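mind reviewing both lines:
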Amino acid sequence: MALNRSMHPRNRYKDKPPDFAYLASKYPDFQKHVHTSLAGRAVVNFKEPEAVRALTCTLLKEDFGLTIEIPLERLIPTVPLRLNYIHWVEDLTDGQKQPRRGIDIGTGASCIYPLLGATMNGWYFLATEVDDICFDYATRNVEQNKLSDLVKVVKVPQKTLLMDALKEETEIVYDFCMCNPPFFANQLEAKGVNSRNSRRPPPSSVNTGGVTEIMAEGGELEFVKRIIHDSLQLKKRLRWYSCMLGKKCSLTPLKEELRKQGVPKVTHTEFCQGRTMRWALAWSFYEDVVVPSPPSKKRKLEKTRKPLSFTVPEAGVKELRDKASGGSGPVDSVAALLEKTLTDLKVLHKQVPRRNPEQRSLFLTAVENTWIHGRPKRREQTRQLRELPRAPHCAGTSSHAAPAAAGTPPPPPPPALKKPGTTSHGNSQDRNTEAKGASANEPSEGGEQTEASEEAAGEDAVMEASTCTEPQQKEEPPSPTPTPTPTQHFLFKCLLNVLLEEADVVVEMHWVEGQNKDLMNQLCIYLKNTLLKLVTKT
C-alpha cells in the first residue's frame, strides 16, 4: 500500500502505511497472502480478491478492533480510502453537538462506514441496503461487533435512495448522508472499455462487487442526480448531503446541477490512496454550516513533486559493499556502483557537496536515452566486431583488428590516407570528439536523441575497416571540432540522493526539469534492476 501524502491529514495511514510483515506474523489468515519481493519487502497482490479481503479484515481487526465477514462476490472496501471519507464528514459536521446522526446509502456487505463511524466517533447510523446478501452480512457484522445500539441496517426496495428510507422517521434531523454510488452504467464500463483513458495504467487492484454495487442505470452521474432530486424535497431534513465519485468528469456536471437548483452551499474534495483517486461532493441547504475549502493547488504540487525511490535492503547492501570499488560505508558503496552504471550509460553526473555523512547526492543530466533497447545495441556492436576479420584489409592492418576489438587503440592509418598536418593520435581523438558531439546535439529521424557512441575501440575498428575498403574516396578537409554542450539540449535533469534509512539504503530521484518524466522513471527502474542483479549474482 503506497504512502500518499495527499491522504486526509488525520488518516492514520498517511505517514505510516500498514506493516505487512508485522501483520503477517500476527494474523495467520493474512500471512497466506503476503510474499517477499526481490528487494526483500513484504508485499500483497492486490489483484487477488482473497488477498484484498484478508488485508481489509486484518486492518479493521488490528486498528479498530472490528471483526467482519465479506463474501468474495460482493464489494471489498479498502480501509484507508474509507477513512478519508469518514474524516471529511467530520470536517463537514465540525462544531455540532454529539451524537451525530448519519445515513449510509447502500452500506454494502461490510457495513464499513457505519462500523467505523460508530467505533471512532460514537455516531448513530441508519444503513440502507437493497441486496439480500449484502443486507444479511451487514446485519451480522453489526451484531457480532455489538454495535446494534448505534447502527440500524434496513432493507429497502430497489432504486430507493433517501425518500423511502426516511418515511418512518419524519421527526429526525440527520447531520449527514454518505454514499459510495455504483460507478458504472453497464458491463463494458465495468471492464474498462471506453471508460478509461488509454494513457492511464491498468487498475492496480481487483474489481469486486455485485451488480447493484458497481452498476446503475446511467452510472454514478445519474445515480447522484437522483440523490440531488431527493434532497430538493427533503432539504433541511439533512444538514449535509454527500457522495463519493469514481470519475473526476462527474464532478463538474453535478456541481452545475446544484447551481441550477439554487443550492446555497456546495463543496468538494479528493481522496487519494496510492494510485487510486476518488472525488467527493457535498451540499447543504443550511446557511450556517461551515464549508470546508476544496483541495488547494499546493497539495497537488506536493503530490507531483514526490520523488521516485527504491530501497536496497540491509542484506543486499552487504553484498553490494563487497562489489563496490569506492567508499567503505553502505551509502558510499551504493553511490559508487550507481556512478559506475551512470558512466556506462553516458549519463552526465556530478557530485553535490555533502552536508550529511549518511547521504550522497548526484546531479544528473541525461542527454540521450541509453538505458532503453540496450540489448539490441550490444548485439549489433558484437555482430559488427565479429565481421571485422572478414572485411578487406589494407597492408599492415589485419594483425591489429583483434586488439582493436578488445579495447586496444588501433594502429595509425596508412600514410597516404592521413590528413595533412595531423598525427595518428590526434586524428583518433578528433574522430571520438566528433562522434560524442554529434550524439549529444543531433536528433535522430524518429525525433529522439541519437544513440550514444559505442565503445571507443569498437567504433575505431569499424571506422578503420570502412577506410580500408574505399581508399579511393576523397576525404573532405577537416572541420573544426565541435565543443560538446550537453546542457544546451538534454532529455531531463534530476537530483539523485542515496541515503541511509536504518540499515537499508534508499535511492531517491527528484525531478528538476526536462522533456518527459517517464524517461526519469525508466532510468530509475534501470538503476534498481542493475543493483538487484548484482545482489542476486552468486
